[in-house]
Specification:
The protein is mainly α. Among the domains are: 80 residues, no CATH class; 155 residues, no CATH class; 85 residues; 90 residues, no CATH class. 63% of the residues lie in helices and 2% in strands. The strands form four sheets. Strands 1-2 form a two-stranded antiparallel sheet. A two-stranded antiparallel sheet has the order 3-4. A hairpin with a 2-residue loop joins strand 1 and strand 2.
Length: 758
């Protein structure tokens, strides 16, 4: 049985069954299965350019009837059975190939459109950068590295778009529809198949329209995406800025070492101190450091002295020096170490050193032995403590300072004379330390204020800093017209009150005679001139005392580098008769030495001894002038009368002391109409002055001879060599005394009343 399929190829609608017994053999190779046929069939899948030549019509497939049974056909594989697919199989395959090719072209067009879009966006961004510069937030470009790389890549691939079929250059995306090969690929390849491919063409046109719509929609979306990308870039920049700021806020500090943390804590602690205290620490440190990297031993003592922590007594100074030695053992002392280590340690040492003295003063006023003082007794104890370390020269400063301190004491500590509070010993110690610190701070303020008001040159201010306020009080004590000028007589009285000009002796006579000349009598002097006169007198007395000390060294055959013990200085000053006009005993001189010796050294060289002697003599003279002013006020004597009496007294003695014989001679000269004998003079001395205060030079000389002969009488068995040495020492001592007398001038008994005309 054979099946004729030609009617299917010819398009007949009726079936034509042929039931002929004759077998018809199928051709060996049909046109479709021949190589030429295969080439032609495959060539129909590829669109070709239309030509005038018509291709041959399709020849249907002719197959022999299958001889297999139904069971065998069902058991055969799909590759062994011919499946019926109906007419137009090759055309369907051709249409499927065209659709797949069109889909590939669509995908390529989308990729090319995306590339063109990226290139356009990169060009737009490059143009914006050239016009407006980079958009940076916090120093960082908003464009990320990824976007920059993409932009650079798209700029490198900026080439004209070409047709994938014919290779023609396309100027726009819409040129795909205008290309001839694309139009031929979309339409059917053969005119005879147009009727059969109408539905396919319609579908293809619909697909092309949908592609255009999707492309237009995509382009509109790309514009929106570009704008949103710009906004996103700004948003990213803002987010990066906010994130960076938050990171900076939350950024942890760098890890510090233990030493750095300690230094930072000390700086914070120093910043928390009161402003006045910080200023005092900084001023004392800056003045002492003098441009160096830290404080050495001498600079550290100077800074502590500026803070009032140098100590007054020898044991206090020794405690301070011990702390200084411990502090400089490891090197120079910096500012924080000075504030938080050295100063507290020195304060503690001074409190410990002053505790016995303060405890004794506390117990003196604690009569009831209650262990506490009333406020009035505490104020009195503090005043006594302040007077104990105030020198004679600082007495006037104490009178100005104390009312201010008592007022501050009542305001800050609620301690006043009318308060019912009690003060124990611990609080008394703190108040005593505060008194000392406040007093030294007040002295510094007074010095600075006096220097500014006087307009002193820097060199003169530095030379006299520490005594400017005291010298200014001596100067303005005799300034009556409030013009800052002194005459010659007032200048001499101010110099004597300051202790720099002696009231007797050769220097006194020379200075007074020099000021009494016609050229200097009408001169006026300002405060800087007064300080220059003070310096001149000090230089003159220093040279004279150096000569006296060298003579002492020569007599005792001492080397020039031999040091003198501080404990021997009072007796040495008395033996040299340097304070005979102002001090009564060695105890008075010892008190002045302890008051003036601030370095704390136990032994002094000749230069340091001379300097200490100068301070002691000036302090003794100031105390003597105050006592004289007090007596003159009691007996109602004016300043001019006191000045004339000092002139008369200086003519009678050059040592500052007269005996009963000198007083007898003076009374006879003053009162020639009265009979004055020795008994009257002695009775007058006993009534007016303590016994033994005055002594005659003749009596003292006569009484010294037997005392010198006592050693030889008490020890007759002494060798002649020892006796010779004692005689030689006595001779040298006599020469020294004579040199001192010549230094002051001979005792003028036959004198005339001086006629000073200032």
């Amino acid at each position: 049985m054979t099946v004729d399929l030609e009617w299917l190829e010819r398009g007949n609608a009726s079936q034509n069954w042929r039931t002929s017994p004759k077998r018809r053999h199928a051709p060996l190779k049909s046109r479709a299965t021949s190589p030429q046929g295969e080439l032609k069939a495959s060539a129909r899948c590829v669109p070709k350019v239309a030509s005038g030549r018509r291709e041959p019509q399709l020849v249907g497939l002719r197959h022999n009837a299958s001889r297999k049974t139904l069971a065998e056909a069902m058991a055969a594989g799909p590759w062994q059975v011919a499946t019926w697919r109906g007419t137009g199989t090759m055309l369907s395959v051709h249409h499927a190939a065209m659709q797949s090719a069109e889909m590939g072209r669509h995908f390529r067009a989308c990729a090319w459109a995306k590339a063109a879009e990226d290139r356009a966006r990169a060009a737009e961004w490059a143009r914006r950068r050239r016009e407006k510069g980079h958009l940076k937030v916090g120093g960082v470009d908003v464009l990320s590295e990824k976007h920059q790389d993409q932009a650079e890549g798209t700029e490198l691939l900026a080439e004209p778009t070409r047709c994938p079929l014919c290779g023609a250059a396309l100027t726009a995306l819409t040129d795909f529809d205008c290309c001839d090969c694309m139009q031929r690929s979309i339409t059917g390849p053969l005119e005879k198949d147009r009727s059969q491919e109408a539905s396919v063409s319609k579908q293809t046109s619909l697909q092309a329209a949908s592609r255009r719509a999707s492309l237009a929609r995509r382009m509109s979306l790309q514009v929106g995406r570009r704008q949103s990308a710009d906004m996103d870039g700004l948003g990213v920049g803002r987010q990066a800025s906010d994130r960076r700021k938050s990171n900076e806020k939350q950024k942890k500090p760098a890890t510090l070492t233990r030493l750095q943390r300690l230094i930072q804590a000390k700086r914070m602690e120093f910043d928390a101190l009161p402003e006045g205290k910080k200023e005092r620490f900084r001023s004392a440190y800056d003045q002492a450091v003098a441009g160096q990297g830290g404080l050495g031993g001498q600079q550290l003592r100077q800074a502590l002295a500026d803070l009032g922590l140098a100590g007054r007594q020898n044991h206090e100074k020794e405690a301070v020096h011990e702390v200084v030695r411990e502090s400089i053992a490891a090197g120079l002392v910096d500012f924080l170490e000075f504030v938080f280590q050295v100063v507290p340690k020195v304060e503690q040492k001074l409190v410990e050193a002053k505790s016995p003295k303060l405890l004794s003063l506390f117990n003196q006023l604690d009569v009831a032995m209650a262990g506490s003082l009333s406020c009035s007794d505490c104020i009195e104890a503090l005043r006594r403590h302040a007077d104990s370390f105030i020198t004679v020269l600082d007495g006037d400063i104490m009178e100005q300072f104390w009312p201010i301190f008592v007022k501050e004491l009542a305001q800050q500590h609620k301690v006043s004379k009318h308060s019912d509070e009690t003060i124990d010993f611990a609080n008394f110690q703190r108040l005593a330390s505060e008194v000392e610190v406040r007093l030294f701070a007040f002295q510094g303020q007074m010095e600075e204020r006096a220097a500014r008001s006087a307009g002193l040159p820097p060199a003169l201010e530095a030379a006299h800093f520490g005594e400017i306020a005291v010298m200014m009080r001596y100067f303005y004590r005799y300034e009556k017209h409030q013009r800052g000028l002194l005459g010659t007589q007032e200048l001499v009285m101010a110099l004597m009150d300051s202790g720099t000009l002696p009231t007797v002796g050769r220097l006194h006579m020379t200075t007074v005679s020099n000021f009494a000349t016609r050229n200097n009598r009408l001169s006026v002097y300002r405060f800087p001139d007064f300080l220059e006169q003070v310096d001149s007198l000090r230089r003159e007395e220093k040279s004279q005392r150096e000569a006296a000390f060298k003579s002492w060294y020569t007599i005792h055959k001492w080397a020039d580098d031999k040091a003198i013990a501080v404990t021997d200085m009072p007796q040495l000053i008395m033996d040299l008769s340097l304070v005979a006009d102002s001090c009564r005993s060695v105890m008075d001189v010892r008190a002045l030495v302890e008051d003036c010796h601030k370095s704390g050294a136990e032994f002094l060289q000749i230069d340091a001894s001379t300097e200490l002697c100068n301070r002691v003599v000036e302090s003794a003279r100031v105390a003597a002038r105050r006592r004289e002013a007090l007596v003159a006020e009691q007996v109602k004597l004016s300043e001019e009368q006191v000045f004339d009496m000092r002139g008369c007294f200086s003519e009678m003695t050059h040592s500052g002391v007269i005996g009963p014989d000198d007083l007898h001679y003076l009374l006879v000269e003053l009162f020639p109409d009265h009979e004055i004998d020795d008994a009257f003079v002695q009775e007058l001395l006993d009534l007016a002055l303590p016994s033994g205060y005055f002594h005659s030079s003749s009596k003292s000389a006569s009484s010294s001879a037997p005392r010198a002969a006592k050693p030889s009488e008490s020890n007759p068995s002494k060798s002649k060599a020892a006796q010779a040495q004692e005689d030689e020492a006595a001779a040298h001592r006599k020469v020294l005394e004579e040199s001192i007398l010549r230094f002051d001038g001979p005792l003028a008994r036959n004198y005339t009343r001086p006629s000073y005309q200032f």
